[in-house]
Design brief:
Layout (H helix, E strand, L loop, with lengths): L1 H10 L2 H10 L13 H6 L2 H8 L3 H9 L26 E3 L12 E3 L5 H13 L6 H8 L3 H10 L10 H9 L7
Antiparallel strand pairs: 1-2
Length: 179
């Protein structure tokens, strides 16, 4: 029903509106910008003749020019000489011990692997007089400031085993009956 209502308003007085639009005067176009004098002078025959005429003096100078090009000699890169350090030179082998199958083999200098971090934290916890921050920094190619932060803020877990008597007392404990 809504479509019929809109159609009625849309088609109302269509012919009169169309005639009114057609009878309107066409808008005048915007004035064109006057072009530069180049366009008027380009049409002159003197300029066309000057452009098309060959200059003998310039032609003789052009004939004297000879261009010879050669490729630069190819240099073979050898192992010696100056070159930028590659990432392979900046890596070091890890010190893993019995856990080497679990971790990466090469680590960039200034970083440590997860297994190495756990190992050095455990060594420092068990023997702090031997594994000082300076020794750890030298051993793993780390900065002393970072090693101090590592030892201060990361502490390895401690596994505690309960004695057997405690386990028996827990197993023998009978819950109280509620009455």
């Amino acid at each position: 029903m809504g479509g019929r209502v809109t159609r009625v308003f849309r088609n109302f007085n269509v012919e009169n509106r169309a005639r009114r639009e057609i009878s309107k005067e066409k808008p005048t176009p915007a004035p064109r910008h006057r072009t530069a004098k180049l366009d008027t002078t380009a049409d002159s025959p003197e300029i066309k003749e000057e452009v098309l005429r060959k200059d003998d003096r310039l032609l003789t100078l052009l004939k004297d020019v000879y261009v010879e090009s050669r490729d630069p000699p190819v240099r073979v890169k050898d192992g010696g000489g100056e070159h930028l350090p590659s990432k392979q030179e900046e890596k070091r082998l890890t010190k893993l011990g019995h856990l080497e199958a679990l971790d990466v083999k090469k680590v960039p200098k200034g970083k440590i692997s997860l297994v190495e971090a756990l190992t050095l934290l455990n060594n420092h916890k068990l023997q702090p007089q031997i594994w000082t921050a300076e020794k750890i920094a030298a051993e793993y190619s780390l900065e002393l400031k970072e090693v101090n932060s590592l030892l201060e803020f990361f502490i390895p877990f401690t596994v505690l085993e309960f004695p057997k008597e405690t386990k028996k007392s827990i197993a023998n404990h009978k819950p109280k009956k509620l009455t």
